[in-house]
C-alpha cells in the first residue's frame, strides 16, 4: 500500500499512453469522423440541390409542353383555315372555268346557227331561182344573176 | 509456499495477504515482501498496466491503418461508439475547446476500464500460472495498487494546476487561494479551504477508484475462500455450487462497477479540467 517509485513509473506510462492514444487513435479517428460527416452533409446538400433542380426541370418541361400544345393548336387551326381557303379558291376557279366553257359553247352554237341560217338562205335562193326559171320557161343563167340571187338571199 | 507455516486460522489471512502482495523489487522487506521504502518497484503493477497500454496502442494503431471513411463495420464500429461516447461526454461537460481533453479522457476511460477488467479474471488463475514460472507474488489488477490510481490522478492534478495558471494567470491562481470561499477578510481560512478543496480532487479521484477495485478484489478473494475452506468433506457438494453462484453474481455486478468507475474517473477529470478553464473566481 506504500507509495513507491511505482507511482513515477505509472505517471510516465500514463503520459506516454495519452500521447500515443492522441496520435494513433484520437487524431486519425476524429479527423475521419469529421471527413465522414462532411461527406454526408455534402451528399445531403447535393440531394437537396438535385431535388430542386428536378422540380425546376419538371416545371420547365410542363411549360414547354403546354407551349408546344398551344403552338400545335395554332398550326392546326391555321392549316384548317388555309385548307378552306384553298377549297374556296378552287371552287371559284372551277366556277369561272365552267362559265368560260359555257360561254364558248354558246358562241359556237351561235356561230353554228348563223352558218345554218346562211346555208338555208342559200338553199331558199336556189329554190326561188329554180322556181322563177320554171315560171319564165327559160333557164336563167345562175351566173348572170348571181348578184340578184345574193341580194334575194340576204332579204330572206 | 509462504503460507504453509500456520495452517488453520492463519491460512485464510495468509491467502488474502498473499494475493494482496505486489511483486516487489528494489527496496522491499525480505519477510513480508511489502515495500519498505520509496525505492521499491511493484513490478506486476507496472508490467500489467504497461501490457494493457501496449494492447491499446497496438489495437488502435492497426485499426488506424485501415480506417473506412464510408460505412464502418465490425471493430471500427465499436471503437467509433466509444470515441463518440467520450467526445459527447467532453462536449457536454467541458466549456470551451482544448484538443488535449478528449484524448486524455479517452485514455483514462479505456485504460482504467482494461485495468479494472483484470479483476474479472479468476483471482487464482494468473497467480497460479505465475507460480509455475517461479513468480511467487502477483497482484494482477493494477488499479488495486494505489500507486496506479494516484499516478493518474496526480497527472490530472498537474494538468489542473497548469491550465488554472494558464487561464487565470499566476496572480489569478494565487488570488483564487486567497479570496475564494469567504472574501478578503478571511485570507488564512481561505488558503486552507482552497488548498483542501484542490488537494481533495486528486485524492478523491485516486482513492475512489482504488477503494472500489480493492474492495471488489477482496470480495472475489472471499468468495474464492469459500471453496478453499471446504476442500475436504461433503460440504464441498453444496458449498461449491454456492461459490459458483456467488462468484457469477459478483462478476456480473462487477462488470457494472468497473465500467462505472472508469466512467466516473473520466467525467471527473473532464469536470475538474473544465473548472480549471473557467476564469471566474
Task: Outline the structure in words.
The complex is a heterodimer of chains A (156) and B (281). Chain A is an all-alpha fold and 156 residues long. Chain A has one domain (6-155). Chain A has helices at 6-136, 146-155. In chain A, α1 (6-136) packs across α2 (146-155). Chain A starts with 5 loop residues before the first helix and ends with a helix. Chain B has helices spanning 10-19, 43-65, 75-93, 101-117, 125-132, 146-179, 187-229, 236-277, and strands spanning 24-28, 35-42. In chain B, α1 (10-19) packs across α7 and α6 runs parallel beside α8 (236-277). The model of chain B is unreliable at 1-9 (pLDDT under 50). Chain B has one domain. The relative contact order of chain B is 0.12. Chain B is mostly helical. At the A-B interface, α1 of A face β2, α2, α3, α4 and α6 of B.
Give a quick set of tags describing it.
heterodimer; A: 156 residues; mainly alpha; 2 helices; 0% strand; B: 281 residues; two-stranded antiparallel ribbon; 5% strand; disordered N terminus
Secondary structure tally, helices of chain A? 2
Helices and strands of chain A, in order, run as HH
Shape of chain A: rod-shaped
Number of strands of chain A: 0
Cα-to-Cα separation, first versus last residue of chain A: 173 Å
Helix content of chain B: 55-70%
The count of helical stretches of chain B stands at 8
Biggest interface reads:
A-B, 32 and 49 residues
Shape designation of chain B: globular
Please give the share of residues in helix of chain A.
over 70%
For the CA atoms, what is the radius of gyration of chain B? 23 Å
How would you summarize this macromolecular structure in one to three sentences?
The complex is a heterodimer of chains A (156) and B (281). Chain A is mostly helical and 156 residues long.
Amino acid at each position: 500500500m506504500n507509495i513507491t517509485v511505482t507511482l513515477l513509473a505509472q505517471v510516465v506510462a500514463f503520459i506516454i499512453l495519452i500521447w500515443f492514444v492522441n496520435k494513433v487513435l484520437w487524431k486519425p479517428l476524429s479527423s475521419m469522423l469529421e471527413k465522414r460527416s462532411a461527406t454526408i452533409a455534402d451528399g445531403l446538400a447535393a440531394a437537396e440541390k438535385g431535388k430542386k433542380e428536378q422540380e425546376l426541370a419538371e416545371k420547365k418541361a410542363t411549360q414547354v409542353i403546354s407551349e408546344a400544345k398551344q403552338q400545335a393548336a395554332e398550326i392546326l387551326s391555321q392549316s384548317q383555315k388555309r385548307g378552306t381557303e384553298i377549297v374556296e379558291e378552287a371552287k371559284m376557279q372551277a366556277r369561272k372555268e365552267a362559265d368560260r366553257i359555257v360561254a364558248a359553247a354558246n358562241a359556237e352554237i351561235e356561230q353554228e346557227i348563223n352558218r345554218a341560217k346562211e346555208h338555208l338562205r342559200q338553199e331558199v335562193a336556189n329554190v326561188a331561182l329554180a322556181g322563177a326559171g320554171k315560171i319564165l320557161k327559160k333557164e336563167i343563167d345562175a351566173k348572170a344573176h348571181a348578184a340578184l340571187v345574193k341580194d334575194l338571199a340576204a332579204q330572206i | 509456499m509462504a503460507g504453509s507455516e500456520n495452517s488453520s486460522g492463519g491460512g485464510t489471512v495468509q491467502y488474502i495477504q498473499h494475493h494482496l502482495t505486489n511483486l516487489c523489487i528494489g527496496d522491499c522487506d525480505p519477510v513480508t515482501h511489502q515495500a519498505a521504502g520509496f525505492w521499491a518497484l511493484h513490478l506486476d503493477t507496472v508490467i500489467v498496466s504497461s501490457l494493457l497500454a501496449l494492447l491499446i496502442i497496438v489495437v488502435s494503431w492497426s485499426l488506424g491503418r485501415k480506417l473506412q471513411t464510408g460505412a464502418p463495420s465490425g471493430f471500427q464500429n465499436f471503437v467509433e461508439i466509444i470515441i463518440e461516447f467520450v467526445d459527447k461526454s467532453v462536449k457536454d461537460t467541458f466549456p470551451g475547446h482544448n484538443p488535449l481533453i478528449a484524448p486524455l479522457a479517452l485514455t483514462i476511460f479505456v485504460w482504467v476500464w482494461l485495468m479494472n477488467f483484470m479483476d474479472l479474471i479468476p483471482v487464482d488463475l494468473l497467480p497460479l500460472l505465475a507460480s509455475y514460472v517461479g513468480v511467487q507474488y502477483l497482484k494482477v489488477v493494477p488499479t488495486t495498487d494505489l500507486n496506479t490510481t494516484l499516478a493518474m490522478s496526480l497527472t490530472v492534478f498537474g494538468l489542473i494546476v497548469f491550465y488554472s495558471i494558464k487561464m487565470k494567470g499566476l496572480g489569478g491562481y494565487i488570488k483564487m487561494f486567497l479570496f475564494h470561499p469567504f472574501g478578503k477578510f478571511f485570507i488564512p481560512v481561505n488558503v486552507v479551504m482552497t488548498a483542501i478543496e484542490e488537494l481533495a480532487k486528486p485524492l478523491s479521484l485516486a482513492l475512489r477508484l482504488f477503494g472500489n477495485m480493492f474492495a471488489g478484489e477482496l470480495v472475489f478473494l472471499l468468495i474464492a475462500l469459500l471453496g478453499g475452506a471446504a476442500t475436504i468433506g461433503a460440504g464441498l457438494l453444496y458449498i461449491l455450487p454456492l461459490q459458483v453462484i456467488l462468484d457469477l453474481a459478483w462478476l456480473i455486478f462487477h462488470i457494472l462497477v468497473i465500467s462505472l468507475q472508469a466512467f466516473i474517473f473520466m467525467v471527473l477529470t473532464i469536470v475538474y479540467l473544465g473548472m480549471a478553464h473557467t476564469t471566474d473566481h
